[in-house]
Amino acid sequence: MRKRATAKEVAEAAGVSKWTVIRAFTPGASITEASRQKVLQAAEALNYSPNLLARSLATNVTHQVAVFVDDFANPHKLPVLEMLTERLQAEGLLTVLININRHFDHVHALINADQRQFDAVILFGTAFREETLGDRRLGPDFPPMFVLARDSQIPGVPAIACNAELALSQVVDYLFDKGYRRPGFMTGARTLSTALGRRHHYANFWRRKGVESVIELNADRYSADAGAEAARAYLSATPPPSRVDVLMCENDILALGAMDTARSEFGCRVPQDLAVVGFDNIELGATPTYGLTTYEQPTYEMINTIVEMITGARAVEAVTLPGHLVPRLSA
Amino acid sequence: MRKRATAKEVAEAAGVSKWTVIRAFTPGASITEASRQKVLQAAEALNYSPNLLARSLATNVTHQVAVFVDDFANPHKLPVLEMLTERLQAEGLLTVLININRHFDHVHALINADQRQFDAVILFGTAFREETLGDRRLGPDFPPMFVLARDSQIPGVPAIACNAELALSQVVDYLFDKGYRRPGFMTGARTLSTALGRRHHYANFWRRKGVESVIELNADRYSADAGAEAARAYLSATPPPSRVDVLMCENDILALGAMDTARSEFGCRVPQDLAVVGFDNIELGATPTYGLTTYEQPTYEMINTIVEMITGARAVEAVTLPGHLVPRLSA
DNA sequence: TTGTAGGCGTTATCAA
DNA sequence: TTGATAACGCCTACAA
C-alpha cells in the first residue's frame, strides 16, 4: 500500500524546500510564479494534495461541524439536513452527523466532539439538560454549540429557532376566523420544552379569544404511528358531539397519522368533522390526499444564521425568526 | 481562551512521563494500576482527554466514514441514515454526511475524503461514472469505497445492494397471480442504472409470463411531486380502457405521488381501476390512506455487511441480499 | 514497567 | 522570496 505523497517528497521532486511546497498551496503566500509552477507540476505528478489532518493539528481548525440528531422519524429532518450540509459545504465545512440514542448519548457525543476538535456543534432538534453533564465541564476550549429549531435550556448556548409565539398566534387567529371553537392539541413527547412551548402559546391565544379549554392529546413520540394511536385513543373515548372541532398537532408527521386514523377508522370528514393542523410543512402534507394546513419554519434563514455565527460573520446570540402559515384544506 | 490539556501537562501533574499518560489511555498497555490511577486522577483534574486529531495523524486512522448522498427527496433515506450512523457509531466510527450536488460533486468530495484520510467512503444511493474522475487517479492509499443500495459501475468498488432480480420476480409473480395483465413501470431518473435494472427485470419477468409490453412512465426525479406529474401526464393522455391495470413505481415516494394524482384528479379507485406498487416500504406507505403494496430492502443486513467490511470483519466483495414483498391493499 | 528518540505532515515565525 | 527551526499532540519502537 503506497502512502500519500507528502510535501517533503514533492519538494525533493521539484528541487525546492518543503516550505516552498506549502506556499504553493497556500493562497496568498509569497512565492514566485516560477517556483509555484515547478511545485504544482511535481505535485500533479505525485498526485499530491495537502493532508488536512496534519493541517488541522497545526492550525486547530478542522472545518468539521458536528450535528446531533436524536429523532429520525420525522421526514422533515431530511430537507433540513440537505440545506444544512449544502450551506456548510459552501463555507468549506463538512458535517459530521451524530446519532444521539441510548447507546450514544449527548455526553458521549460531546466528549467526542471535543476530542476531535470540531469547529462547532449543532444540536438539531435535540437538547439536553445541563445536569446531564454531571460534574464534567465544557471548558472554554470546547467547540461553540448552537441549538437549531428548538429552544435552549443551556446557559451560553444560543437557540436559533422559529418564533413560536408568533407562529401560534397566527395559527389561532386563522382557526378562530374559520369558526373553530373547540380546539385540541397533540404533543409528541410530553417532556420536551418545545412541545410545552407550542402548547402553551396555543392555549394562551385561544384564551385571548375567549376559549378557555384546550383538550390535550399525547403521542409518546414523533411518528405517524404515534399520532394515529393518540388520535385513536381520543376518538374512541369521545363521542362525536363532545369532540374537538380542530386538532393541532405538534408536527406534520403526527398530523398525518391522526388524519389517517380519523378518516379511515372513525369516518371523520376533514375538515368538516375534524379539522387538522400540523407544523413543518413536509412534502407529503401538500398532496391532495392530505391537503394539510400547516406552519412552515424559516428553515433557510435559521440555517443561514447559524452558519454565519459559526464562520464569525455574525454575532453569536439567540435568535427567533418568523415563519408563515400554509393554509390548505384540512383546516 | 484556555487550551485543552495535553498528555505532557497531565504527566507533570501526575509526576510521570507523558508516555505513561498515553499508556493509561491505551487499553491493554502495560502499566501498573498505581501509575494508572495517578494519571487518571490528574487527567480528571485537568479535564484531559486524548486529542483524536493528533492520534489520527500518528496512526493514520481517523475513525470517520464519509457517506455521500445526492438525493434528499426520498424520505426513505432517513431511517437508513439512522441505522447506518447507529451501526457505525457502535464500531467507534463517526459519519461524515456529504451532500453531493452541483456545487460539490463526486470528484470534489472524493479528493476531500482522501485529504481527510477517512477510513472509508460509502456511496449511498449515489454512483458516478469512472470517467468523471478524468485523469485523476484514486491511489492505493485512497479510502476504500462501497456502494450502498445501488449497483456499482466502478471496477474495484463493490456494491452492497438488494437482489433486484429476485425482488422483481417476486413482485411480478404476485401481480400476475392477482390477475393483472397490463403492467406499467415508472422510473425516477431515466439514466440511473438502478432504474434501468429494476425496469429491465420487471419487463423480463412479465415477458416470461407471456406479457410482452410494459408501458414506461418517466418522472425526472424522485419525489412525490415528480411521481404525481408523470402519472398526470400519462393518465390525461390515455383513456381508461387502454390504461395499464397496475403501475409499479421505482420507489415509494413516486408511488405515493402517483396514487394521489390518480385518485384525486382522475377518480381512479386503487386498486380496482389502477393498482400501484412501490419500492422501499416507507412509513407513510403503511397508513390506511395509502396501504401501499411495496418491496422492502434488507436495509439492516446491507448496512451490517458494509460495516463489517469496513472494520475488516468480512471480506470485501459485492453482495446482493434478498428483501421481501410487503403486500397491502394498493395491489 | 517506565523513560527516551524519532516521526506523523503540516503551520508559524524568524533569519537569510 | 526562500530556507530553517520549532511546535501541534500523539504513537511506535527501542532501550533502560
From TrEMBL, chains A, B:
InterPro entries cross-referenced by the UniProt entry: HTH_LacI (IPR000843), LacI/GalR-like_sensor (IPR046335), Lambda_DNA-bd_dom_sf (IPR010982), Peripla_BP_I (IPR028082)
Coiled coil: none
CDD domains the UniProt entry points to: HTH_LacI
Keywords, in A-Z order: DNA-binding, Plasmid, Transcription, Transcription regulation
Ranges of residues in domain HTH lacI-type: 5-59
Keyword Heme: no
Protein name (record): Probable transcriptional regulator protein, LacI family
Organism: Rhizobium etli (strain CIAT 652)
